[in-house]
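Repro:
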Amino acid sequence: MAEKPIYRRVLLKLSGEGLMGAQQFGFESDAMERIAEEVKTVRDMGVQVCLVIGGGNIFRGLSGVAAGIERASADYMGMLATVINAIGMQSVLEGIGVETRVLSAIPMATVCEPYIRRRAVRHLEKGRVVIFAAGTGNPYFTTDTAAALRAAEMECDALMKGTQVDGVYSADPKKVKDATRYDELSYKDVLTNDLGVMDASAISLSRENGIPILVFSIHTPGAFAEVVNGRGKSTIIRELAEA
């Protein structure tokens, strides 16, 4: 008998860098196809899946500011980069038979649907993968915050953050060899110790809505499905009882 997932509906947050593979910019087909297969596996388990993808592989708002672009304009440019990523991932997912819809917080009817909460929920109920693009539609907010917001609006059981490492560490494990890895953290721990998992707004929003955050490596084959099944290597961030 097939194992039953412990989550009914999840939001997967990916960085734009996760689509680059070994490249320095843009997309790598192998990386996108591998992620699409991970999503398909979880969708085929009967889990409703939605995604938020960053745009750092194309444009970063703060980099634009450093180049002399006004902050709000730079952030809008970053939001458009997330739309490009969303459309690309939609194409790859549909290429392997996964019906997918892109909903953008900035209306652009020629290429995708506008974000309407009830429409997004209906797509999920029909078994479609939904990709939320253009962040929150407002400057000064990151795609981490957009992911926490959409997870709350969709009433997701968990927010899954696929990263470059297999959980949350006290420091970058690629730079600090003896960095401590955590299996479990409270929202307060993350905020107090400035662990940099997600920005403070995203952590606070998840805390207010009781949505656990699971951090795992998107580069480990099968990790997404393992985490959805309550196994695998990850760090879970949730409300913990005071000692």
